[in-house]
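Box 3.1 — From sequence to structure: CBS domain-containing protein
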Amino acid sequence: MVPTRFAWPYGGRQVFLSGSFTRWTEHLPMTPVEGSSVVFQAIYNLAPGYHQYKFLVDGVWRLDENNPYVTDEYGMVNNFILVKEPEVASSILRSEPLLSKSGMDVDNDIFQQAASLSGGTQRELVLQISESDIDVSRRRLSILLSSYTAYELLPDSGKVFVLDVKLPVKQAFHIMYEQGLAVVPFWDDSKGQISGMLTASDFILILKELHNNSSLLTNEELEMHSILAWKEGKIQLHRKSDEPMQLPFRRPLIQATPQESLKDVAQKILQNKISTVPIIHSSQDGLCQQLLHLACLPGILKYICRHFRHSPGALPLLQNPVGRLPLGTWAPDIRLTNAYQLTMLQPNVPLSSALDLLTEAQISSIPIVDANGCLLDLFSRSDITSLAKSSAYVHIRLDQTSIHQALQLVYEASGPLNAHRRCQTCLRSDSLHDVMERLSDPVVRRLIVIEAGSKRVEGIISLSDVFNFLFG
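Predicted structure (token representation):
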């Protein structure tokens, strides 16, 4: 991070600073400069890159017209600054001393070059990241996670839910809804072991099957249809399908022992494209199993963040803006090439279209946007369990229920206190460290990258994106 001085030299009673680096929601107080009654200043640590900002003076948004500013495509006018990395500054800046305007040090040539981009529409100037920095960070992470075992993830206290494989799926999904679970293991007493996982994806497939009026499963049969019967039926369903099978449904349960390294646990999650791995302790004869914990990527990420919190310099990548790193899925106008197409839907689209995308594209969430591409909400795979409330799924038609209506059911089920945590955002200028800290919250599975001020969706960064990048 680079300490950057901002100044407002035009007086006022109360002056605050806000910008893309505060997500335009936090107002930083500025203090009068000693010996002056009109000059206010604030020093803020910024990640290298392009940032926009503005001043709130006595309750009124003000622009410093003596410093560079830009009008974006939405008509918003903000000052802007390009923060440069100290180690590369000598190769970018001119050899003569920098000019100072209104107390803020800027390089006018750099800003004039930036202002000429895209016909006046500003773009972040990308600096090259050293491959050696990436290799060093990945190597240190690999050493750290290889040195510690899954025991580090076990909480001091807590509870783990396990369902009997004979339990009707209708009752199972009610339990998942009531306990706020997106995935839960089930126990097969005949085998004396945990034999699989029931997930939100299963509920989506059941809803689609009910919607298709297939003979495999009806509303009446759902009352007594067991988890075991559903799992066997799902195999038959995919065998009859003309579409190529995307997942090996007969694969054994992916699990880990408490002695396995954190790196091995993370790789099992990533390689098998799953969200959770049960940590199971087995007796020496293998006849007795004990479920200790459900390991997931947020827990491992939280461990990484805690380890490097007081020594961020040990990982050179942490202070880089995420917009400069090869991770995440981006809109075509943000990145010229994408491994995956960024999928967005509008709120009036039928729920059936969203469920089709979640299953066929194998994605976990879809940003919901308005006609201008600005973020309104987020529909995630785990949201489907909210339809278990009062058996709402029995009374709706997937092709006649809009995403907006489905989200209303989600809010009714989750309550207003959790509503603000559903749709978490970040900016391209946010550092990888900040993004990792926020993704270490188990509730936050991904961050929507938005344009500062307009909330136009620019990309999405998920937990698996971060781990795939860190592991290379």
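Summary of the box: DSSP finds 14 helices and 22 strands in the chain.
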